[in-house]
Amino acid sequence: MSSSRPDAAGAAVLDAAAPLSPEAGIAARSRRPAVGPGAAPFLQAAPLALVLLLFLVLPLLVTAAVSLWDYTEFTLVPDVTLRNYREMFEGCLSGGACSTLRTYVSTFKLCALTLAVTLPLGFAVAFFLAFHVRSDSARTALFLLCTAPFLTSNVIRMISWIPLLGREGVVNRALLGSGAVDRPLDWLLYSEFAVVLAFVHLYTLFVVVPVFNSLMRIDRRLIEAARDAGATGRQTLVHVVLPLSKPGLAIGAIFVATLVMGDFVTVGVMGGQQIASVGKAIQTHAAYLQFPAAAAQSVVLLAVVLLMIAALTRLVDVRREL
After folding, report:
1. Are 294 and 278 in contact, with CB atoms under 8 Å apart?
2. Is 87:293 a contact under the CB 8 Å cutoff?
3. Fewer CB in a 10 Å sphere around the end CB: N or C, the chain?
4. Which residues on adjacent β-strands are paired with residue 71?
5. How many domains does the chain have?
6. ABC transmembrane type-1 domain spans which residues (predicted)?
7. pTM for this predicted structure
């Protein structure tokens, strides 16, 4: 009498046809992806996109909308008008006095002077850290030393210059005592010199960091090859190091130019309310509750800064640093 046994194929069929237990079904469902593979990148970028939408895009849209409002001495009128832009450029096209043009010329002058000092100074500091400091711990310590002033308020750091640069300050007393001058120098404080000096003090580090990043990416074998080819230190700096550090210099210039163009606190404190700047004009409109006029000035300033950034990025490819 022969007994029948299910073969391996039959066992597999019976196992597949057998109903799954509740625990096995839950485990199988848990292994299934909740979303498709194409949606995962969008979900990962959603938090950052939401933050940018709420705190960048939305405020810009509100500012642009308010710039089209009208206003009186006592209230805002939510109406669509170009009055604020017409008043801003009043006299510029007719050949008369154009206060906006003079303000932008003064701001561009401050920006150019600040860049003329911060770029070489920041490059020198970054070059020293990248090529002359061999120890990583020493390099980190020097970086922390550079960032130490940022632990205090910008206003306090600017006010600290007043006892040094005032008529009765340390610098004037030293110059008078040495006989270098016969009377105190008035232009040391509450002048364009004082404003540029404060800008250099505040913003040089914003050049050091991106330039240092560019210098650390330079292949040291290129410098050795230049030396082996007979290049002097100056030739190596001009033809090898500087071209490869252009992206860092461009990023530092963007940082400094953006900060200087919109600054009003430094100009007010160090300029003694005597230096015109776009940021100061916006702050004055806001202080007098002329928010539509301030918004219009802000929109124009944003457009000018974006044009400056676009020009710099056309000259230098900064995407290599990003």
Report:
1. no
2. yes
3. N
4. 76
5. 1
6. 104-312
7. 0.83
